Recover the amino acids of this structure.
C-alpha cells in the first residue's frame, strides 16, 4: 500500500544588504536586518514558484528564485522543487532585494540536500539569479545576504571573503519615489568609463578604511570612509531627489556620514534615530514620502520556520 | 662647579617595508625584517647629522632625518639634536629606505621627549622626510616602518590605520642594477593619468583581498591578491630587467604570487626560500646580480641600544 505524503516546506531566511559602502564600488557589501526574505522549498518534479507571500508582490514567472534553485539543485542532486517566496525586502530600493531572495533560495536548497556548497559555489549560483534580474551576475548583495556581515567579492579571480559581523547600529532610509524597472541599469549608465588614477587611489584608500572601521566597529571612521568616494556617489546622487538636502540634514543631526545604498535610492546613514528622522523630514520637505530603520549588521542565510 | 656632561645617544630602530602590495597602490604597505635602520639622537643646539654608519653611505647634508627630527622636535618641545644614522636598508631598491630612516627619527625624538605623537602626527612628520627625498610626501612606507605590520594610508582625509602583524614568511628579492637617483619619480612617469572604471574596481577588490589575506595570514589568497593589479605592475615591470622571466621562475618554484616592492626594482614574493633562489637564478641568467631574503612581517619603530 502506498501513501502520498506531502513533503514539508524547508525554509531559509536571508537579510537585506547595502552594496558599495561608498568607495568599495562593486566589491563591498554589508548585510543588515532592515528587511528579510524567506524562501521555502519542497521536493517535486521540475522547478516553479507556487506561492508568493509577504509585503511585496513579485511575479511567480521568471522569478530569480527559480534560476537559483535550479542551479543549486543540479549541484546537490535534487530533481526539482516547488518554491515559496515570502518577500520582505522592498524591490528596487538599493537594498539587495533580489540578492536576499537568491541567497535564501541557495540556502534552502542546501538545507533540503543536507549539504553546503563552498562560499564561491553558493555565491556564484546566487549571482546567476542577479543576472536573471539585472542582466549582469553581480555578486556583492548576494554575498552579503548569503554570508552575513561585511563581505568583499572579486571577479577575476572569483573570490568571496567575509570580514565578520560588525557590532554597530546604522540607519537605512528610503524615499518611496517611483523607480524604473531598469533602475540598476540606469544607475550604471551615469558612471564614467574612465577615472583619474588619483581618484582610483582615493577609492582604494577609502575601501581600506571602510574595512578597518567595520572590523573595529568604529563609526566615526566609517562615516569618513564611506564619504571618500568621489567617483560613483557624485554621479548617482543626481538620480536621487534632494540627496544633498538629505545629506546636509543628516550631518547636521550629528551623523558621521552617509552614502547611497547600492544603486539607490535608499541611503545608508552612519548615525542614529535622530539622523533617520532628519533624513525623512528633509525628503518630506521635498514632497517625497520616506521612512527609515535603525539596523544592525545581519548574519548570513540560515534555516527558518515557514512564515 | 659646573660639569660638562655629554648627553647619551637615544636610539630607535625601524624596519624596511614594501609599499603597494599590488592593487593597494599608494595605500597599503607591509613592514618586514629584511633590513632596518637605527637613528640615534642627543640633545644639543640646532639640528645636524654628525655620524653615518652601517652598510650604506648616505649624505650627512640634506639627510631626511634632519627634516623629520626638526618637525618632531618642534611638536615635542626639543630645541635641537645631534643625529646619528645607522643605515641598514639599501636605498633606491623599493624597500622603503628613506621611510625607515624617517620612522626611526620620529621615534627617537619621541623617546628623547618621553612622549608619543598620534599616529597621524608621527606619520605626517615622517612623510615630510619623504618629500625632502622624493618631492612628494608619501606616507605608505613611513606608516609601515613606524607602525609595523600591514598599514593603509589615505590623504583626503589624512588617515593612518594598522591591520595588525601577519604571521607569515615572505621573500624579498633584489636585483643590484644601477638605479637613477630619481627612480621613484621615473616610476611615476610610466603610470597612466586615467584608468578604466573596471580596472579601478579590480584594484578595489584586490585591495580588499590583500587585507583579508594578511589578516588571516592566508598565503595562497595573498598570492592571488597581489597579482590582481592590472594597472601599475604591467607598466612598472618594464623598468625592471627580466621581470617576466623572474615571475615565471618564481611561480614555477611553487610560489603563490609575486609583485613589485614599492617602485621596484625589488620584488615581494609570496613563497619560500626556493622561490627566492629561483628569482636570483633567473636574474643571474639575465646577467644581473641579485640576492634574496626570507622575511617576516616586522613590528613598528621602537627603542634600540646604540649600534
Amino acid at each position: 500500500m502506498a501513501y502520498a505524503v506531502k513533503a514539508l516546506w524547508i525554509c531559509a531566511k536571508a537579510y537585506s544588504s547595502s552594496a558599495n559602502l561608498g568607495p568599495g564600488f562593486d566589491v563591498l557589501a554589508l548585510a543588515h536586518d532592515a528587511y528579510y526574505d524567506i524562501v521555502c522549498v519542497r521536493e517535486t518534479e521540475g522547478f516553479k514558484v507556487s506561492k508568493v507571500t509577504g509585503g511585496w508582490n513579485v511575479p511567480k514567472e521568471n522569478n530569480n528564485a527559480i534560476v537559483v534553485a535550479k542551479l543549486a539543485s543540479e549541484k546537490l542532486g535534487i530533481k526539482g522543487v516547488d518554491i515559496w517566496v515570502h518577500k520582505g525586502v522592498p524591490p528596487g530600493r538599493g537594498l539587495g532585494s533580489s540578492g536576499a531572495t537568491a541567497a535564501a533560495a541557495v540556502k534552502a536548497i542546501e538545507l533540503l540536500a543536507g549539504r553546503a556548497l563552498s562560499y564561491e559555489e553558493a555565491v556564484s549560483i546566487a549571482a546567476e539569479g542577479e543576472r536573471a534580474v539585472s542582466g549582469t551576475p553581480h555578486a556583492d548583495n548576494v554575498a552579503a545576504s548569503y554570508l552575513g556581515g561585511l563581505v568583499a567579492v572579486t571577479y577575476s579571480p572569483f573570490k568571496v571573503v567575509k570580514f565578520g559581523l560588525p557590532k554597530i547600529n546604522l540607519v537605512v532610509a528610503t524615499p518611496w519615489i517611483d523607480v524604473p524597472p531598469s533602475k540598476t541599469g540606469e544607475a550604471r549608465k551615469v558612471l564614467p568609463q574612465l577615472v583619474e588614477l588619483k581618484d582610483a587611489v582615493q577609492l582604494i584608500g577609502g575601501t581600506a578604511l571602510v574595512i578597518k572601521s567595520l572590523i573595529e566597529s568604529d563609526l566615526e571612521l566609517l562615516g569618513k570612509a564611506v564619504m571618500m568616494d568621489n567617483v560613483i556617489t557624485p554621479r548617482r546622487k543626481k538620480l536621487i531627489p534632494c540627496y544633498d538636502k538629505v545629506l546636509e540634514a543628516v550631518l547636521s543631526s550629528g551623523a558621521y556620514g552617509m552614502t547611497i545604498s547600492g544603486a539607490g535610492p535608499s541611503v545608508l546613514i552612519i548615525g542614529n534615530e535622530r539622523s533617520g528622522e532628519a533624513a525623512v523630514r528633509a525628503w518630506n520637505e521635498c514632497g517625497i514620502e520616506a521612512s527609515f530603520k535603525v539596523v544592525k549588521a545581519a548574519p548570513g542565510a540560515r534555516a527558518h520556520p515557514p512564515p
User: Anything to note?
Assistant: Chain A touches chain B through 40 residues (CB under 8 Å). DSSP finds ten helices and twelve strands in chain A. The mean pLDDT of chain A is 94. The longest strand of chain A covers residues 28-43.
